[in-house]
Amino acid sequence: MTDRSRFLFVILIAFGAALAGVFVGRSYIVAPPPVESELHQLLHEQLDLDPTQETRIEAIEARFAIQKQALELELRADNARLAQAIQTEHGYGPQVSAAIDRSHKAMGELQKVTLEHIFAMRGVLRPEQATRFDDAVVKALTVEAK
C-alpha cells in the first residue's frame, strides 16, 4: 500500500467515524424541547380545551408571536451593534457597555412579554386546567439543564 493509499484510507475511516458520531448524536442525544413547546403541547393536547378556549388562546398566541418576532429582531440588531462596538473598541469600552445594556433591556422585555403571554393563556383556563398548567410552568422553569 502506497503512502497516498494509506492517507486516503485514513481519511475515509475518519469520515466514516465522523458520520457515525453525527448519527449517534442525533439519534440518542436529543435536546429537551423549549418551554414554549411543552406548554403549547400541554394546552392543545392534554388540557381538553373547549372551542371557546381554543379560539381565545389562538388569539393570545397570535399577538405574542408578533411581539416576540419584533423583540427578536431588536435583539439581532442589538447584537450587530455590539459586534460593531467590539470591532471599534477592541475591548470593554463605553460603546460595548452601552450595547450590552441595550441588549439586556430587549432581553428583559422579551421575558416580560413571554410571562404576560403565559398569564394571559392561564386566564382562559378552568381551575383544574390552570393547576396543571401552573405545575408545567414551574417544572419548566426549575428543571436543571443536562
From TrEMBL:
- What Gene3D superfamilies does this protein map onto? 1.20.120.1490
Check the record and name the Pfam families matching this protein: Metal_resist
The record, for InterPro entries, names: Metal_resist
Q: What is this protein called?
A: Nickel and cobalt resistance protein CnrR
**What organism does this protein naturally occur in?**
Edaphosphingomonas haloaromaticamans
